[in-house]
Automatic annotation (TrEMBL):
Positions of ATP binding: 260
EC number: 2.7.10.2
Protein's recorded name: Tyrosine-protein kinase
The Protein kinase domain, residue ranges: 228-491
SUPFAM superfamilies: Protein kinase-like (PK-like), SH2 domain
Keyword Kinase: yes
Amino acid sequence: MEPTSPRRRASNELFIGREMTAEDEESIKKLKKSNSQMGNNKSTRSSTSLVDPPTPGDITNLNLETIATPSPLTAKPDEFDDEKELMSLPCYHGYIAREDLTNILSNTGDYLIRRTILNENRNKPDAKPNFLCEVILSVFTSTTEQKNLGKGTKSQTKKTKQERVTNLVTNILLRREGKQWQANELKFDTIQQLLDHFTKTDGFLKAKKFRLKTPVTKLEWEFSHSDVTVGKMVGEGAYGEVFCGTLRLKNGQVVDCAIKMMKNMEQHKTRERIREMMKEARLMRHLKHVNIVSIYGVAVDQQPPFLLLEFITGGSLIGFLKKAIFWNTDLTTELKIKMCLDAARGIEYIHKMVIIHRDIAARNCLITRDKVVKITDFGLSKQGTSYRMMDRQKLAPRWLAPEALMETVWTSATDVYAFGILVYEIWTNCKQPYEGLTPKAAKNRITTGQFLTLPPSCPSALSSYVAQKIFVYDLTKRAAMSEVVQTLERISKMNLSTMTSPAIKSVRPQKSTAATSLMAKQESRKFSRI
């Protein structure tokens, strides 16, 4: 995202979701009090991406000890001494998220060592939180259960039984007791001795038996901080920063990359931030498309965790468009249509992968020096065909469709509407949607169907299509992204030199319950919550 000051971010955002109750307000007061005691820095969410591409000379060897060191979340004095021992283990995966374990461990006896952040007082509601960086042994285990299916038929004299094999990951907490490691009430001088013991002897955790067989090393998308050289910061948001740098791949090749890392690692938020970053990486690992920013992987062996992305030399789309204004450069109609088509193809691919992006905007698009637009920032994305936001969050209403603002419902059609706003940004060189209005006033315009109109410089064929098929109040009547791509491909082949765009007025809709009716059709399908 283009760096924005907190004041500018606040002017674009508004709380979206159910109204605050007295209970909510009391909970927020308690949270604020707790945050102030822990020295919490207030901030609002903002995604991050590249802004202006640095020159090769900007990439310097910074001292990683000041950037990537274990976060001092624990009061245990030996934590920093333990890091060297952990890093020497081939099966150490750092702060890998629990949700990724089933993608790493697949056979009975597979195991790894990881770190996690736990509240030592999680079982004491009245106690002050005390967050510790704990060491966990995760092992893939299988249990066999026999289910009695009842009496057989007259021809069957025996009861029938069905065996069900349940695969799961067992997590064993490894505690530091003085200079020794403890697990299953046994103590060992080193973690390697502990692993060797449970390779030969069964262990038990709450009646679950486990035996270590195969240590699992880092996968192709897991890197170490030592593989990364951090350079100049090129983007910043409220929760994250983006640096340019280099990455040493598994085959030894060194490539340019963008490094997205978290900042302000407060105790009570670090675990959740790591999960958010790992969820974004989990989604992006499956996306391979020319109009989607590629991911190399993550580096989570130390703090802060790194999200390692393809480095886009052209920078952000919003920066590119604003530079055109600054340098008084005319961007051709053909180029702008190509930008729209590139973004549309990227979104179409995302929808085919059954993902809702939820944050389509020029700030979340990058452009290469060959003028190829790529979609980035999947921090808000959800896997599934629909999603309902159950809590209250601060979002930018200018890019949201009516159903998102009124009923906190997102579908692929919500992304289609946001794509219309992106088209508006491209043709106005990133003029702010509903410029001059407060976020609340912009929300009122959208929820009453007073949508944006594209400028006269936009070809009439595109303006008409956006007004009739994209800026549509009823989400069930909006065009699918595949149809949008086909239409843009036809428009791109037209003779655009003589085409002009007439003024197209938005039509105020009748009271509609489009989102509600769609949900009624899908009442048997639960909204996905990731």
